[in-house]
Amino acid sequence: MKYNLLKLVFLLCFILPLGSVSYAQVEGTMPFMSSLPQVTYYNPAFKPEYKFSIGLPFSSVFMQYSNNGFSYNDVVMKEGDTRVADLDKLNSSLREKNYINTNLSAELLRVSLKANARLYLTFNVSSKVYNRLMLPKDFFGIIKGTNQYVNSTATLSPKVETTSYVEIGAGAAYTVNKDLTVGARFKLLKGIANATTQRAAFNLSMSEEYAMTITGDADIRTSGIHNFEDSDIDYEVEDNWRDFTSNNGFAVDLGATYKVNDKLTVGLSLLDLGAIKWKNDLYGYSLDPLKAQYTFEGLDLDRLFNDDDGDDDYEGQLSDSLEAKFDFEEGRIGSYRTPLPAKMYITGTYKLKKTLTAGALIFAERFRGRLMTGFTASLNKEFGRRVATSLSYTITNNSFNNIGAGLSLNFAPIQIYFVGDNLLRAPFMLMADKNLNGYVNSLQYFTFRTGINFVFGRDKVQEKQPYPKNK
């Protein structure tokens, strides 16, 4: 026991420093809410506590926001009763690459069924939206108006990723023996819309006379977006809705849990291993660096302030010149493929008492060559069969004060739940400054999931196991 405790302490000492480089989109509290059927989304080997459950449209609604670079407090400061932009503070808080992520998902249908003592089956239809915007630090330097680019060149490479799709999944968890359970979920993906940045680079240089030269080079691919610019969009979608089902993809979730002893259980899962091939309404938007060049030598103040009758239209000429140089070329493109953000969960739960467990979670997400990590610790308590709770602490997005909570009210056949990360800071932040919405002001990471399930037949521990004991 002492040896295991030492290993645990060593592991925590290794994980905690990861918070300084963590930008993960971890949902830290939810994987430990074992009373909820949705727990299988984080490891297909997990088995919910109810033998049968069903979720109707919007039985689970999830939203998430994360920002590894800055919060509202880093952008705005208060001077008296007014708020003003604090660009110096913003610039000092930024990272070289600042990622702003949002996620939305909603269940359209979900069914969970215990087929027999060893086999548990799941089926779900869900709609999902994933957005990621990357802004380099130099982008904000331009907004600030810094002169760091004098006699030098800076390259700005913003990136945009947005994907919406419908997921149709079928999974199974199988108990191999008294210690090992394995699981898999196979998912058919139907893409709705996508925009992805293949390439984007804007080179900025400034002379000693503060003449600024900008050169642009970009390649952006889209699917299912161009038609929405049509004034007859209602007609188009109604007549061609089948086109939106031509974007097909496939993904798989794999998982396993292992019972180390009567108190400790560990789990490992790999999620969203797959991609979508986009075929519908394909358009590309590009900038040719040989054409997208403009040198701004400063404002002619005489023309700007003395054109009272508007004959010169100096501002309009500047705008037209920029628009002509940086007008994206639009055209049809061929099909292309985009991956899903692949995720890994490593979980551990330790039973402190019959109805009290401690949990730890290591999370990683890999997307387009970028690895993101996170860590969550939790305490989970059940109060009889009616109430299940969880309290969690998460390190992510360069912040160390993310307190989450989960509440499940089980009045079978109705189950109502609320689960989120970074939820409990609101009262303390508001008390600290009643004139500010402090919860939002310092927010860099937030998740929230809620819904109503219909559950039947709470699964009891059987005295006689349906599998042979390990020798």
Overall geometry comes to globular
How many domains, as an integer? 1
- How many strands? 23
**Rg from alpha-carbon coordinates:** 26 Å
Q: How can the largest sheet be summarized?
A: 21 strands, antiparallel
Distance between the termini: 21 Å
Strand fraction: over 45%
> What multimeric state do the chains show?
single chain
Output the structural class: mainly beta
How many distinct helices? 8
Which helices and strands appear, and what pairs or packs with what?
Elements: H1 2-15, E1 50-55, E2 61-67, E3 76-79, E4 82-85, H2 87-93, E5 97-114, E6 119-136, H3 137-144, E7 153-156, E8 159-175, E9 180-206, E10 212-223, H4 233-239, E11 248-259, E12 264-278, E13 282-287, E14 293-296, H5 301-306, H6 314-325, E15 329-332, E16 336-339, E17 342-353, E18 356-367, E19 370-383, E20 387-396, E21 399-411, E22 414-421, H7 425-432, H8 438-441, E23 445-458
Antiparallel strand pairs: 1-5, 1-23, 2-5, 2-23, 3-4, 5-6, 6-8, 7-9, 8-9, 9-10, 9-11, 10-13, 10-14, 11-12, 12-16, 12-17, 13-15, 17-18, 18-19, 19-20, 20-21, 21-22, 22-23
Helix pairs in contact: 2-3
